[in-house]
Write a structure and sequence with these properties.
The structure is a single chain. The protein has 340 residues and is an alpha+beta fold. 42% of the residues lie in helices and 25% in strands. It has a six-stranded mixed sheet. A five-stranded antiparallel sheet has the order 2-1-5-4-3, sandwiched between helices. Strand 4 and strand 5 form a beta hairpin. Helix 5 runs antiparallel to helix 6 and helix 8 packs antiparallel against helix 9.
Length: 340
Amino acid sequence: MAAFAQSVLDALTTTVAVLDQKGIIVAVNEAWQAFARCEGGHAKSYVGTNYLDTCECAAGPDADMAVEAATGIRAVIAGELSEFCFEYPCHSPNERRWFMLRVTRFDDKGETYAVVAHENITERKEAVERLHFLLGEVNHRAKNLLAVVQAVARQMARDATSQEFARQLDQRLQSLSASQNLIIRGDWQCVALRDLIHSQLGHLGDAIGTRVHIEGKPLMLRPAAAQGIGLALHELATNAMKYGSLSNDTGEVLIAWSILSCGAARRFRINWTECGGPPVKRPKVCGFGQTVIECMAGQFVRGEVKLCYPASGVRWVLEAPEQEVVSQLCSSTGGAKFRS
């Protein structure tokens, strides 16, 4: 291939290989070479080898996809397709990446060639997955919001007069609105854990301090930690109002957190403990809310979650490395313990 054409290929950041009609690699660019070196190979040795045979002889979990890719490339070379695009995962011991395979055909002096480009689309795929999760979360929160409004209205209607009922309901709806605003705000920076708890439990009104107790030193959370813990607190509070210690007039909740020293490492721990409510037991069906409580919260902070259902009340514990939870830019870990 001419030097000019090779320089054009090398200027591309996408990994590119050029194949002849038989599938033999006649050129690769520098990005392809760099990728092969990262994967433990030697890119220059690929030139002169049959790319299609390599695909069709692939083994492992992605073998079927490799064969499908080879079939698409052959169709482009044969003129059956003008272009072939194919998304596929690439497995490694430490991560899973996604690539877009794009194949186009061109002719040069009576010879047909195929340009095979591999683009790393991992960030794009992860962004789509996050968007799908957030859309599901928005839908789920809307349903939970209605359930909370119903629960609040039922509890207040027991003893309040019509005027008092309207006033208290209005206050709680305003609290719910404030909580939703904090959740939706996209760019959280150094969120105070105490503020986060109040935003997620604000709809409980005067129950905070009387039936919901908060204990721990002031902490400023990283944005991801605030998102994950906030999701879990919202679900725990909703479940407590529906089925747990906040579904009656006497139950209580304790939210406590601390920093633990584990040798040279330090770990953050937060507990949600219910008591005084009706006897509880583990749900037979795992819904979206339970997935958030048990899985998503831990994933946000690379931590571990334990969710127990003793008859006395639900107990939830999240533990994670301190650096994954506490903001190092504006953390505040000093000061005396408080209880409200």
